[in-house]
Each structure stands twice: as structure tokens, then as C-alpha cells.
Design a protein that fits this description.
The complex is a heterodimer of chains A (630) and B (398).
Chain A (H helix, E strand, L loop, with lengths): L1 H26 L9 E7 L3 E3 L2 E3 L3 E8 L3 H32 L5 H17 L4 H63 L6 H17 L2 E5 L5 E5 L3 E5 L2 E2 L2 E5 L7 E5 L14 H37 L1 E2 L10 E2 L4 E4 L9 E5 L10 E6 L2 E6 L18 E3 L2 E5 L8 E5 L4 H4 L1 E2 L10 E2 L1 E5 L8 E2 L3 E2 L11 E7 L2 E4 L5 E2 L5 E4 L2 E6 L7 E6 L8 H8 L4 E3 L4 E2 H41 L3 H38 L1
Antiparallel strand pairs in A: 1-4, 2-3, 5-6, 6-7, 7-8, 9-10, 11-21, 12-20, 13-19, 14-18, 15-16, 15-19, 17-18, 22-30, 23-29, 24-29, 25-26, 25-30, 26-27, 28-29, 31-32
Helix pairs in contact in A: 1-10, 2-4, 2-5, 2-6, 2-9, 3-4, 3-8, 3-9, 4-5, 4-6, 6-9
Chain B lengths: L4 H28 L10 H56 L5 H22 L20 E4 L2 E4 L7 E5 L2 E4 L4 H6 L1 E2 L5 E5 L8 E7 L10 E7 L2 E6 L4 E6 L5 E4 L2 E6 L7 E6 L2 E2 L1 H13 L5 H61 L3 H26 L9
Antiparallel strand pairs in B: 1-2, 3-4, 5-14, 6-13, 7-12, 8-9, 8-13, 9-10, 11-12
Helix pairs in contact in B: 1-7, 2-3, 2-6, 3-5, 5-6
The chains are: A alpha+beta (630), B alpha+beta (398).
């Protein structure tokens, strides 16, 4: 009879525990990171009773978690990718909006600028149209600057988010290592039974960490977890953590990199490719900085082409036109890790050959190498880096102050600062060069039928450009320039001298003269204004294949495509992530209906065991009664 | 698959976010009448729209250029018309002065009228356009191009001619410089001039002249000299006799591809020079005529001088009229091409606008349909959630 008491009490205790586990599940149905638990019941060892062996009731062997490591890992990976794409999307959408707004946008400003030149060509002496042109030029510069300011603000935002993420990773790392220690101790105390709640908490921290950066984990035999970031940087090894910190980029102090905070700190930005932190780093290197470079390339192209045209004409005061736009020189920065004190300087020699790339100039073992900073591909160059023979590559000229120490590196950014630094360099509208610099005239006394073109400037830097030159025909087929040697005459052929070019056509007579001179007093001339207005369709970028307008259009399309691609990838990853959450929840989540059914089941079992106890009690009572009456 | 309540909740919230995001996007489309507002929604179309907008803006600028040129050419056409009528009046005055019945005093009066016309011409040559620029100054539009002088007028402009771009491949001059309009006018008949020598004593007067064989006239100078009252010989510049003959009043003398008709009675020793035409300013032509008219006449010799001077003047006025007509015809041609271009660009702009609209504008019918669909989906999913949310076994416990 005592068996029935033992069995029933054991069962009551087991079902009480089962009801507790179920209640705990219900209570934690909405707790983040909670993994559904279930009770493990086993039959108690039987008791030999003669020839038969009668069962000895139920025992609680443990409480297990409904957990699948593979599913959890899948969810963590998918969260990493999603956080990365979401971070990238934040900035690609910002950029998309910045360049996409038509009103006040760069494209409109550039178009207005060229139109303003046309208006000046219509009335070159009008102060009003000139003032409007200067205003249009200022608004182009402001447009570049505004865009550049917004992009730099995005970079500053990225810096502060990187700092915050790094702090959070450190906090998570410390918490994980603390939990590791507690789990090891607790497991030992509970006779090998892992403390489910602590493991839940640790898994939840890993999950949080995976939103910041890609994480891989390994479990030690004692139950502690080792955590590695990105491509293998250890964060937690059992009870020890590595702390991370942010350091300025060796070439650009305004951009933060992730580094280990040991004394020999190592920059690990390159190995962080996923999670929000990876997304922030990628947004900076793949979205913001390239956009700044591309914008800068357009700014440099615009400034160079406009200034050359300005220099080729005369302003209202009869002076050769001054530069309309000023734009900052390329940046050439020595790495903060350099051991030598050599400085580098770079200038743009050929706008058409310029790219939107950054370049890394390295000196090692007596040899220089120039690579594309983004992808590391080698870039061909000539020269030896001295002022007399500078390195020349991709439209750039680079000069080093001295031979650097071996291992020194320099980052050359030809266009990164251009969009932010472009500004108008003249303030007086009369300084806009609308007139051609030279005029060519036929002498009134000419008897031949030859005519001369009005004259164009081909080299505004020629010192003799404005010096009066006379072309005299010695015979109808030969001419001399300024009384020089006789030259054969070909009708319509270019005659180039002193930076200008004219064509003489028709039949000249001997003695006919033509004069090329400064276009003095020609304030109503609009030749240079026409050429300036026409520059909008002139290909000045990418080796003379793309006009400024087309480059702006291509920038808009490029940024739009990039944003679209990231949006699509982000949407796809959201779906993947939802699936991963579903999978994980379907294994580890709490279904309340299921728990309700279980509650009923355990309640009934509990009631039945209680009944068994009652029956056992009445059996015992019967026995006592029988013994008393006997 | 095993589904938990919190998952249902999570999935519903995320679906709700997506649906509301879509709805807000459609609403935004309808509010802005744009099928996309950021390039990422349709990068290719965004690039194309930017390109079309640039072309449109450029085309509109070309129209503005064309209108500006139209105004300036209109001013020029008007001025040239007035120059023509002034020259015509001058021609009438010259003809009037050429008739033998006009007294010295009358001629002085005519000279005074010619003087008036001269100042009218100068003021027309100094015409300004609406923006205050001299239209006949070449590039020097801010300095007065013509000023009267003792021998006609000085020109301080240059030979520049400004162009205005009216389409991607077409530029038209928006004016003509004073040299072309007023100065570079061929004398005589446009090829050569025939003039009486200053020392002639007879009454010989140069009449009609013409080129009969352009190939034979090489631009040389010749002298018709009278060896007797009725005998002439023609010599070239190297004093070689080209032809000779008997003079008959009013009969053409032909040589070297040209014809010169002399009238009156030249005296022996009189000579007439034939020289290639040169450029002469219309103001010089008028000034020469005025000077001739102011000389008293009466004797047969002085009458012949006057007649010759007036004939030279008439020839030169005709050349000036012809030159003005040519320039004016050019102006008319430019105005025509501007008008044509404006109508072409008008239809081009309509085309561009419709291209932009087709890429960028919203198809309202489909947008409203989409909005309805999205609203329905949102309502349905909300309803579905409230139904499933109500399902719980706990409700049936106890």
C-alpha cells in the first residue's frame, strides 16, 4: 500500500512541476529570446517484487529547451544581412532624395547657368543679363556645395553611429563573457544541468550582436561560448573579451575606423562586412564617398571648361576674362602611419582623363606603386615623383617633397573635395568675358575677293595673343605674317599664330592685307558668350566623351539605380528574415493554445494522481478498519 | 508549421507596415501627379526625364534667343526701309537737279534738301536697339558708329557680326555692321566706273555703262581720249591703244568686254577714264553730290561737269539702293528662318513635354485602382487579424 502513496506523491510533484513549466511558458510567451521549455518525464526505476516487476511511478529527468542551433544561426545571419542592408538603405535613400529633387537640384542649376550665357549672348552689354549669369553661376556652386554638405553630414552621422555600435558591441561582449562564467558555475552546481534562463539570455545577446555585425560562435565543453566577429576577430573567448574602439582613418581624420583597443591596436574595419556596422562602413565607402568623388569630378570638369573659355574672351573692360569658378586642388594625404616626413602634392593636368577614383601611392623597397584605393588594381604611371618629372597618371600630376621612407603611403583624392570647395571667383558682372579676344579684319583697300573669319582663340595662355598681327598677300597664292617668310596660301585652311586661329577664303589679290588684333571696344561682341553657352553640349569629361549635362544625368541615374538595387535587396532580405523568424519561432516560440491543452493535460493527470492518493488512503483506511474489527 | 501567437502578431505588424507604406506611396503619387518622385523608383526614366528637361530648357532658351534676334532684326529692317526711302528721295532730287531748266538757286535748295537727307541717313546709321546698343556698329555696339565729316562720315565701328543660336545646329546673325550696310558699296556700275577727266573742255557726258563680256574684262583701267572732236582712241594702263573709232553722240564705245556710252560734244584732248569699281561710303556719295550741286553752273562746260557729277552720283545711289535691298533681303531671310525655327521648336517642345509626361506623369485611372486595391487589402488583413486574434483555447477553459 505504501507504494501507491510513493507513486502518487511522486506523480503529484512531477505534474506540479509540469504545470509550473507550462505556466512559465505562458508567462514568457512574449519575452524576447525566451525559448519554449518542456518537461522531461521518465518512469522511475522499477522495484522487484517477487517474480513481477511493478513500476515505481514518474520522475522529472529535466527541463529541456526547444532550441535548434542551426535555425538560430540562420536567423542571426539573416539579421546581420538585414541590418547591413537597412543601414545602407538609409544613406542610399538620403542620397536618392538629395539628387532626385528637381527643384533647386544640380541639374536645373547647371542648365540655368548655360541658358544665362545664351541671354548674355543676346545682349552682351546688358548689366542685367550679366548679373543674372553671375547669379546662375553662384547657384551652380551653391548646388554643388549644398549636395556636398549633405553628403558630409551623412558621413558625420555614420561616424556617430559607428561609435555607438562599437560601444554596444563592447557592452554585449562583456555581458556575454559574464554569462559564460555564470553558466559554467551554475552548470557545475546543478550537476551538469545547464541553466536554461541564462542560456536564453546569452543567445538573446548573440542575436542582438548579430544585428550589429556578423557573428560566429563555438561552444566549449564546459558550456561557455566563444564569439568571433566578421571574418574571425575574437570578441569573447570564454570569460575574456576583446574591447573595440574607433580610430581616425590614417588618411582622413574625419572618418572613423573600427580597431581593437589593445596597445598595438589593429584596424579591423575591413573584416566587418555585415550587420549594421558593416552596412555603415559600406555606405560610406560605396555610397557616400563615391558620390562625393563623382560630384567633384563634374565640378572640376565644369570649372576647368568654363575657366578656359573665360580666359579666351574679353570682358566688358577689355581684359582677358578671369576664372569664373575656383575649385580646390586634389588632396594628397600622407598616412598617419608613415615613418618618413615626406609630403605629397597633386594637381590636375588633364580634366578629360580624370576619374572619380581615389589612388594609393606606396613606396616599398625602393619601388613606387600606384593603385586604385577602392579595389587595389594597379594604375599605370610615368615620372619619378620629382617636381621636374612628376608622377603622371589619369590626368593627375603628383609631386613628392622627398623620397619617402619604405612602407610609406599617400592617398590621392583628385575630386573628393571639389564639390564642397567650388565657388565663383569673380564678383563683378562686367568681368564675364562675352566678347572674343581677337578680331580679324580685311583692309578697306583690299582689291581681292578674299574674306577672313572673325578669329578664334585656341590657346588663351599665349603671351602674344592680343598683339596685332598683319597677314599680307605677296601674290594671290602666297602670304607673309608680320613681314615674315612667304607661305603658300590654301583657301579656307587654318592659319594659327600667337594662340589664335583664322581662315582666309576666296581669291586674294597681291597686296591685300588682313589684321588680327585685340578686339578693343568690341563690347557688343558675343562670340565667347556663344561658345560658353554651347559648352553644355561639349564633351569635357571621361576622355572628351561626356558633357557636363550628361554627367549630371548619369549621376542621377547611377545613384537611382544604386538606391533601387539596395531597396530591392533590402526587401528581399526582409522576406528571408521573416522566414528565418518564422522557422525559429515555430521551433522555440510559445503557442498559447498548445500550452492551454498541456495545462489541461497536466491538471487532469494531477487530479488523477490525487485521486490515486485518495484511493490509496481509503485502502489503508479499509485495512485499518478490518484490523480494528478483527 | 507550428505558429505561435507572438509570431502572428509580428507578421501582422510587418505586413501592416508594408501595406501602409504602399498606400502612402500611392497617395503621394496621386498628390504630386508624378509616377516617381525619387530616381530609385525608376532610374532609367529619371535619367531620361532629366535629359528631356535639359533639352526642353535648351529649346526654350533657343526660342528666347530667336525672339531677341527677331526684335533686333526687326529694328534693322525698319531702319533699312527708311534708308531705302531716303535714298529714293535723294535719287529723285538728283534727277530733278539734272534737268537743264533748274537754276543755280534751285540747285542750292536741292543741295540743302540733300544735306537733310544726309543727316537722316547718319541718324539711321546710328540706330539703337531696345537695349541701347548701336545696331550698325559691328562688335562696337556702345560707341556711336557714324559721325559726319567733310568728305562724308567716319565709321568707328568694326566689321564684326554677332550670331545668335536659334537651334542646336543653326545660328543667325542678329544684325549687319555699318561697313557692310553703308561703307562697302561699289562705285559706278558695280564693276567699273567711267568718269570725265577734270580738265575736259567739251560737253561730253558719261551715259550708260555696262559689262558685255565679264570674261573679257579683267579689271584693268583704260582711258578714252579724243584725238579730235569726232575721233577717239582707247588705251590701256600701259598706254597701248586697245581700240579707236569715230565718235557719234550717244553711241556706245565697246572695248575689252565693256561698253561706255558718251553723250554731248567732247573737245579734242578731252578724256574719260575707265577704272575698276572701288568701295565708297554712301555718305561720301551723298557728300560728293551735295558739293557738285552747290557749284554754280550755266556755261556748257560747267553744265557737262555737273551732268557728269550727277550721273556718277546717280550710279552710286543706285548701287547703295541695291546694296541696301540686298542687306534687307538677307534680314528678311533671317527673319523667315527664325519664324520657321520657332514653329519647328514649338512642335519639338510639345513632343518633349509629352515624352516627359509619358515617363513621369501618373496614370490616374490605374493609380486610383491601385489605391482601391491597397485599401481593400489593408482592410481585409485588419479584419483577418481581428478574427484570428480572437481565437484562443484559454477562452474555453474554466
Amino acid at each position: 500500500v505504501s507504494d501507491v502513496f510513493g507513486i502518487s506523491v511522486g506523480a503529484l510533484q512531477a505534474f506540479q512541476a509540469a504545470i509550473n513549466v507550462t505556466s512559465n511558458n505562458v508567462a514568457n510567451a512574449n519575452t524576447p529570446g525566451y525559448v519554449k521549455e518542456s518537461i522531461n518525464l521518465v518512469t522511475a526505476p522499477p522495484q522487484a517484487s517477487g517474480v513481477v516487476s511493478i513500476g515505481n511511478g514518474v520522475l522529472v529527468s529535466g527541463i529541456s529547451r526547444s532550441f535548434n542551433q542551426a535555425t538560430a544561426d540562420q536567423l542571426n545571419n539573416s539579421q546581420s544581412s538585414l541590418a547591413q542592408l537597412t543601414a545602407q538603405q538609409t544613406y542610399s535613400s538620403q542620397l536618392d532624395n538629395i539628387v532626385g529633387t528637381t527643384a533647386g537640384g544640380l541639374s536645373t542649376a547647371v542648365q540655368n547657368y548655360y541658358n544665362a550665357w545664351s541671354n548674355v549672348a543676346n545682349t552682351p552689354t546688358s548689366a542685367a543679363t550679366r548679373q543674372a549669369l553671375l547669379g546662375a553661376a553662384q547657384s551652380v556652386a551653391a548646388s554643388f556645395q549644398r549636395t556636398s554638405t549633405q553628403l558630409n553630414a551623412a558621413n558625420a552621422d555614420i561616424n556617430s553611429r559607428i561609435t555607438a555600435d562599437v560601444q554596444q558591441i563592447n557592452t554585449l561582449g562583456a555581458s556575454i563573457s559574464t554569462l559564460n562564467k555564470q553558466i559554467v558555475i551554475s552548470t557545475a552546481q546543478n550537476g551538469g544541468q545547464a541553466p536554461n534562463e541564462l542560456i536564453d539570455q546569452r543567445d538573446q545577446l548573440i542575436s542582438n550582436l548579430s544585428k550589429l555585425t556578423a557573428v560566429t560562435t563555438t561552444t566549449d565543453s564546459n558550456g561557455s561560448l566563444n564569439v568571433f566577429l566578421g571574418t574571425g576577430q575574437p570578441l569573447v573567448l570564454q570569460g575574456n573579451t576583446t574591447t573595440l574602439t574607433t580610430v581616425p582613418n590614417p588618411f582622413n581624420a574625419s572618418q572613423l575606423e573600427v580597431s581593437t583597443s589593445t596597445s598595438a591596436g589593429r584596424v579591423i574595419s575591413g573584416s566587418i562586412t555585415s550587420g549594421e556596422l558593416g552596412g555603415l562602413l559600406a555606405a560610406r565607402s560605396q555610397i557616400i564617398n563615391p558620390a562625393l568623388n563623382q560630384l567633384g569630378q563634374i565640378a572640376v570638369g565644369l570649372a576647368a571648361s568654363v575657366n578656359t573659355q573665360q580666359n579666351s574672351g574679353l570682358d566688358l573692360n577689355g581684359q582677358l576674362g578671369a576664372n569664373l569658378f575656383a575649385v580646390g586642388a586634389p588632396l594628397a594625404t600622407a598616412s598617419s602611419a608613415n615613418t618618413g616626413a615626406t609630403t605629397a602634392s597633386a594637381s590636375i593636368t588633364n580634366v578629360g582623363a580624370l576619374t572619380a577614383n581615389d589612388y594609393l601611392l606606396s613606396y616599398k623597397g625602393g619601388a613606387y606603386s600606384l593603385t586604385n584605393a577602392a579595389d587595389g588594381t594597379a594604375v599605370a604611371f610615368t615620372g619619378n615623383g620629382t617636381a621636374g618629372s612628376p608622377f603622371v597618371a589619369d590626368g593627375l600630376s603628383i609631386v613628392l617633397s622627398a623620397t619617402p621612407a619604405s612602407g610609406d603611403q599617400f592617398l590621392i583624392q583628385p575630386t573628393a573635395q571639389a564639390a564642397g570647395s567650388i565657388a565663383t571667383a569673380i564678383t563683378n558682372p562686367s568681368q564675364l568675358a562675352a566678347a572674343g579676344a581677337v578680331k580679324a579684319t580685311a583692309a578697306a583697300s583690299n582689291t581681292g575677293a578674299a574674306t577672313i573669319s572673325s578669329g578664334t582663340v585656341v590657346d588663351p595662355t599665349n603671351a602674344n595673343l592680343l598683339t596685332t598681327t598683319t597677314i599680307q598677300f605677296l601674290t594671290p597664292t602666297t602670304y607673309s605674317i608680320n613681314g615674315g617668310a612667304a607661305q603658300p596660301y590654301t583657301a579656307g585652311a587654318n592659319i594659327t599664330q600667337s594662340g589664335w586661329q583664322v581662315q582666309i577664303a576666296g581669291t586674294p589679290a597681291a597686296g591685300d592685307t588682313f589684321t588680327i588684333q585685340k578686339n578693343a571696344g568690341g563690347t557688343g561682341d558675343n562670340r565667347n558668350a556663344l561658345l560658353s553657352a554651347n559648352q553644355q553640349t561639349q564633351p569635357v569629361l571621361f576622355g572628351g566623351t561626356v558633357s557636363i549635362n550628361a554627367a549630371v544625368g548619369a549621376l542621377i541615374t547611377g545613384i537611382g539605380s544604386q538606391a533601387q538595387q539596395i531597396n530591392t535587396a533590402q526587401a528581399a532580405q526582409t522576406a528571408v528574415n521573416t522566414q528565418a523568424v518564422n522557422n525559429q519561432q515555430s521551433i522555440s516560440g510559445v503557442n498559447l493554445d498548445e500550452e492551454a491543452a498541456n495545462l489541461l493535460k497536466w491538471q487532469e493527470a494531477y487530479q488523477a494522481s490525487a485521486k490515486a492518493l485518495q484511493i490509496g488512503s481509503s485502502l489503508f483506511q479499509s485495512l485499518l478498519t478490518a484490523v480494528q474489527s478483527a | 508549421m507550428r505558429v505561435t501567437q507572438s509570431l502572428l502578431q509580428l507578421n501582422f505588424v510587418s505586413a501592416l507596415n508594408t501595406l501602409e507604406g504602399n498606400l502612402s506611396h500611392t497617395q503621394n503619387q496621386i498628390a504630386t501627379n508624378l509616377s516617381f518622385t525619387t530616381p530609385s523608383e525608376n532610374p532609367v526614366a529619371a535619367g531620361a526625364v532629366d535629359n528631356y528637361n535639359q533639352t526642353l530648357s535648351q529649346s526654350q532658351q533657343y526660342d528666347a534667343n530667336a525672339n531677341s534676334a527677331q526684335t533686333r532684326l526687326g529694328t534693322e529692317d525698319n531702319a533699312l526701309g527708311q534708308v531705302q526711302s531716303a535714298l529714293q528721295s535723294l535719287r529723285d532730287l538728283a534727277l530733278q537737279a539734272n534737268s537743264g531748266t533748274v537754276s543755280n538757286q534751285n540747285r542750292v535748295d536741292i543741295a540743302a534738301q540733300a544735306q537733310q537727307i544726309q543727316s537722316t541717313l547718319v541718324s539711321l546709321a546710328n540706330t539703337k536697339d531696345g537695349t541701347g546698343e548701336y545696331i550698325f556698329g559691328g562688335y562696337a555696339t556702345q560707341a556711336q558708329p557714324f559721325a559726319l565729316s567733310a568728305t562724308g562720315a567716319t565709321y568707328s565701328g568694326d566689321t564684326g557680326q554677332r550670331l545668335v543660336q536659334i537651334s542646336a545646329g543653326q545660328s543667325v546673325p542678329d544684325g549687319d555692321n555699318g561697313a557692310v550696310v553703308f561703307n562697302d558699296i561699289k562705285t559706278g556700275n558695280g564693276t567699273f566706273t567711267a568718269t570725265a577727266a577734270g580738265g575736259n573742255t567739251g560737253t561730253g557726258v558719261v551715259g550708260a555703262t555696262s559689262v558685255t563680256d565679264p570674261a573679257a574684262y579683267a579689271g584693268g583701267s583704260y582711258t578714252i581720249s579724243f584725238t579730235a572732236a569726232n575721233a577717239y582712241q582707247v588705251k590701256d594702263s600701259s598706254n597701248t591703244v586697245v581700240t579707236s573709232g569715230t565718235y557719234t553722240d550717244g553711241q556706245a564705245i565697246s572695248f575689252a568686254g565693256v561698253q561706255v556710252t558718251l553723250g554731248g560734244a567732247p573737245a579734242s584732248g578731252d578724256s574719260f577714264g575707265v577704272a575698276p569699281s572701288s568701295n565708297q561710303s554712301v555718305f561720301t556719295t551723298v557728300q560728293n553730290l551735295i558739293t557738285a550741286l552747290q557749284q554754280p553752273a550755266g556755261s556748257s562746260g560747267s553744265n557737262a561737269k555737273l551732268g557728269n557729277a550727277i550721273n556718277v552720283g546717280l550710279n552710286n545711289i543706285d548701287q547703295a539702293l541695291e546694296n541696301t535691298s540686298t542687306v534687307r533681303a538677307n534680314v528678311g531671310g533671317r527673319l523667315n528662318s527664325i519664324t520657321t525655327q520657332l514653329s519647328v521648336s514649338g512642335s519639338q517642345q510639345i513632343q518633349l513635354k509629352s515624352s516627359i509626361a509619358s515617363l513621369q506623369s501618373l496614370d490616374y485611372a490605374s493609380a486610383i485602382t491601385t489605391l482601391n486595391e491597397q485599401t481593400t487589402t489593408l482592410q481585409a488583413s485588419m479584419q483577418a487579424f481581428s478574427i484570428t486574434k480572437g481565437l484562443s483555447l484559454f477562452k474555453f477553459l474554466g
